[in-house]
Amino acid sequence: MAVALKITDGGFSYSVQQAAKEVLYLPLSSEARHRVKPIIDMLGFRAAKSLGGFYIFAATTFFGLPAGKLEWLVLGLMPLWLLGVWRIRTGYIRMLKKQVMGGSDAAYVPAATADALSFIYREKDIERLKPFLEDRSVQARKLAAMACLILLRHGGQYELARSEMERLTGAQTEEKPEGAARDIRDIENQILTARGESSSPDPERAKDWTQRLEKILNDAGRPFDERKRAIELLELAGGKEAIRLLPGALAACGDHGLRLVMASALKRLHRIHPEQALERAVLKAEILREGALGVKLAGAVLLHEQKRNAGTAADPLNVFLRALKDESLERLFFMLEALYPQEIMDIVHARMAGRAAQDPARMRAVELLSQVLEPTIFKTLQLVLEDSVPLPEDAAALIRDLTGSTDAWFRLAGSVLQPEPPAV
């Protein structure tokens, strides 16, 4: 029995305890960590063990407590230990955020894309779209670059280009026929009416809405905006039931723009209902799938930037490919935030968005992720997280992969990623 207890104690000491102790040093700079860590590990650890020995000695000698009752003293001290941990939690998170974000508390906040989208449909001049190529929002950059590429491909014929833009974005510039998406409108009206009557709708009705919305969401023949609205209504009415079905829908979806919406909704729902179990195996598989997509998109960027005069801010194809790559990183972090501590994932994502591979803030963020993610997952994602994807060895295979994708945006990227892509 004693041997088994000793083995168990040693196992936890060199696994859980050691890992937790190393994580506590993360808010410190490398210089401070290297200065104080040896002192704490050698002097502090031994001093703590000495104090523990004195505590036991005092309890047994001066207070006459039998050795077999010492566990009650340990149990009595545990609430004080938990209280201390809780009290330093806020300060620890603040220090961690400051360290990872390089002293700044400002998170990256993407700009709204509604103005960019309406501007794209209104303007017929590429020059007027160029300012959006440098927008902070990934979506705005992607839309503006897409519009420039399509206008160039159609030789400036705006009406032809607009129909292709509508197909890609799922937006409609004209009134939809009466009766279109009537089922979505009916569900929406029922949900809004029920929420107006009670903050907690009847579970049976909520289950019925969820099943109907799931059917709409999984119908690949539906337009993008209808399926996107189904996700929004699931988030509004589905609650825990939506958390159950979204991972499966995410895995089955071939439209990566829609996967972004699903991943974002799943992250928000899990934050509201943290007690609801997630399909962790499915989500981990999707995280690895997204990592593979990120490698392809980073390879496409490198392939294009090899070309003469490519890679500039005025090059819409470069902006478009980089926007797809950044959007993939957003999807990846939305899924990571659903599985791992959201506060840490939010901080890391904010520091990685739009930063170069050698940026100190990005490097600190990657270091933090290496401590949080399982080694197998981190190793798979490492190239994407460090932005160190090598140039693709087989460019033709990469282009074929993109043009054969089920995602219309990827097909557009593959179709223009040819030996002589259009340039402004």
Question: How are the elements arranged and paired?
Answer:
Layout: H1 2-23, H2 30-61, H3 70-100, H4 114-122, H5 126-129, H6 138-153, H7 158-169, H8 182-197, H9 203-217, H10 224-237, H11 240-252, H12 256-272, H13 280-305, H14 316-339, H15 342-352, H16 360-372, H17 375-385, H18 395-403, H19 408-416
Helix pairs in contact: 3-15, 4-6, 6-7, 6-14, 8-10, 9-10, 9-11, 10-12, 11-12, 11-13, 12-14, 13-14, 13-17, 14-15, 14-19, 15-16, 18-19
Question: Could you explain how this protein is built, in words?
Answer:
This protein has 424 residues and is mainly α. The chain folds into two domains: 99 residues; 200 residues, no CATH class. It is 72% helix and 0% strand. It has 19 helices and no strands. The longest helix is centred in the N-terminal third of the chain and has 32 residues. About 6% of the residues have low confidence.
How many domains? 2
Q: Percent of residues in helical segments?
A: over 70%
Basic shape: globular
Beta-strand level of the residues, as a percent range? under 5%
Question: Number of helix segments?
Answer: 19
Return Rg in Å.
27 Å
User: Structural class given helices, strands, pairing?
Assistant: mainly alpha
Give the terminus-to-terminus CA distance.
76 Å
Order of helices and strands: HHHHHHHHHHHHHHHHHHH
Q: Major sheet: size, sense and barrel closure?
A: none
Number of beta-strand segments? 0
Uncertain ranges: 101-116, 171-180
Mean pLDDT: 78
